[in-house]
């Protein structure tokens, strides 16, 4: 039987500082109602001064590794002897430094060096791209066990005066452990669909700081150092691309949309989640939603939602689960698996606050 990458550990992490909509309303020209009715978000978490993406990635990674260990001890999805992790892939658009990559630092701090470690940059689709990359290396025999992390600290690149982006984005991280196994095992990644369209690069961007701007030798125009997004166009493209990607993947593995038990999509906007769910014929109770409590955590979004739902019982062994994301680039991607039995601890700061059904918003 062919080799497969099997999900066997899961963990999430958010910073200690929660920022409610009411706090933003005091700082900006906005209200709690304006934010909730347009996005479904009521709070987000942000790092303290001096913290960085690697700090969140290390904590999420540590919890995923512990989840794999405990799952193995309890005879769950990781039932055999555990080889050491020999690959770390970090999805992020907010690395600690432009150079070097952040993944080697994370691997070192977790005591995993000298394993292979590198970053993947696909913005909000980053985790799906990283998952596909690591799974391919496992199935090809280049790695036996991989730690895949999605982590971002978008609070560091948001314009302090922009009420729209500051309302949407939060900081957070999630991680999974993959091991070599069989395609018929629960937790085996059954397939991927990935795509991009660089013609839409201006829809989601930070214009300054890269080689194109720096090569001019001129200072960046004011405001270009901050993240920007053309919201209406992004909304349309996100629904279209995630729906098409999900449908292509489901066709490829022989599943129908209505057979899905859970869709864990990138947590961007609750209206986007609903629209994609409708395209796939899913009732709202099959959508995993935690953006109301964490906001859009970019590459951390999907694995953080997985950890949150798994710890609260929202994901159960045997369920058919679809992951799908959309982000800058433009990029998009989807993955599918049958959910395994895992030991997952609640995400600190989110304990006792279960992932919601899609919250009410105005159309």
Automatic annotation (TrEMBL):
Give the pathway listed in the UniProt entry for this protein.
Lipid metabolism; fatty acid biosynthesis
Q: Where is the Beta-ketoacyl-[acyl-carrier-protein] synthase III C-terminal domain?
A: 253-339
- SUPFAM superfamilies the record matches: Thiolase-like (SSF53901)
Location relative to the cell: Cytoplasm
Primary gene name: fabH_2
Protein name, as recorded = Beta-ketoacyl-[acyl-carrier-protein] synthase III
Boundaries of every Beta-ketoacyl-[acyl-carrier-protein] synthase III N-terminal domain copy:
118-198
Assembly and oligomerization: Homodimer.
Q: Where is this region: ACP-binding?
A: 267-271
Family indicated by similarity: Belongs to the thiolase-like superfamily. FabH family.
The opening ranks of the lineage are: Bacteria, Bacillati, Actinomycetota, Actinomycetes, Kitasatosporales
Record note on domains: The last Arg residue of the ACP-binding site is essential for the weak association between ACP/AcpP and FabH.
Q: Which organism is it from?
A: Streptomyces violascens
The EC number(s) given in the record are 2.3.1.180
């Amino acid at each position: 039987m062919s080799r497969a990458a099997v999900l066997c550990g899961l963990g999430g992490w958010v910073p200690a500082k929660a920022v409610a909509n009411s706090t933003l309303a005091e700082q900006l020209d906005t209200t709690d109602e304006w934010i909730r009715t347009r996005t479904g978000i009521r709070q987000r978490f942000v790092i303290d001064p001096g913290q960085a993406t690697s700090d969140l990635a290390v904590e999420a990674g540590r919890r995923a590794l512990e989840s794999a260990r405990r799952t193995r001890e309890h005879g769950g999805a990781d039932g055999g002897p555990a080889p050491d992790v020999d690959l770390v892939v970090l999805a992020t658009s907010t690395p600690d430094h432009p150079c070097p990559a952040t993944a080697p630092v994370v691997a070192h701090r977790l005591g995993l060096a000298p394993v292979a470690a590198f970053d993947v940059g696909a913005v909000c689709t980053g985790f799906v791209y990283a998952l596909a990359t690591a799974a391919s290396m496992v199935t090809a025999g280049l790695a036996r066990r991989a730690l895949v992390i999605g982590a971002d600290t978008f609070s560091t690149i948001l314009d302090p005066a922009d009420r729209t982006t500051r309302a949407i984005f939060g900081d957070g991280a999630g991680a999974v452990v993959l091991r070599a196994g069989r395609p018929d095992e629960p937790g085996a990644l059954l397939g991927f669909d990935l795509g991009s369209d660089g013609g839409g690069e201006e829809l989601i961007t930070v214009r300054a700081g890269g080689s194109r701007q720096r090569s001019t030798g001129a200072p960046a125009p004011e405001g270009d150092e901050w993240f920007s997004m053309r919201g209406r166009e992004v909304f349309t493209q996100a629904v279209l691309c995630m729906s098409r990607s999900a449908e292509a993947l489901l066709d490829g593995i022989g599943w129908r949309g209505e057979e899905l038990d859970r869709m864990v999509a990138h947590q961007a906007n609750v209206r986007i989640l609903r629209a994609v769910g409708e395209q796939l014929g899913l009732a709202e109770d099959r959508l995993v939603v935690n953006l109301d409590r964490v906001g859009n955590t970019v590459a951390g979004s999907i694995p953080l939602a997985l950890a949150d739902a798994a710890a609260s019982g929202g994901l159960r062994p045997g369920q058919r689960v679809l992951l799908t994301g959309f982000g800058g680039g433009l990029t998009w991607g989807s993955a599918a698996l049958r959910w395994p039995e895992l030991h997952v601890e609640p995400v600190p700061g989110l304990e006792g606050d279960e992932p919601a059904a899609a919250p009410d918003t105005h159309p």
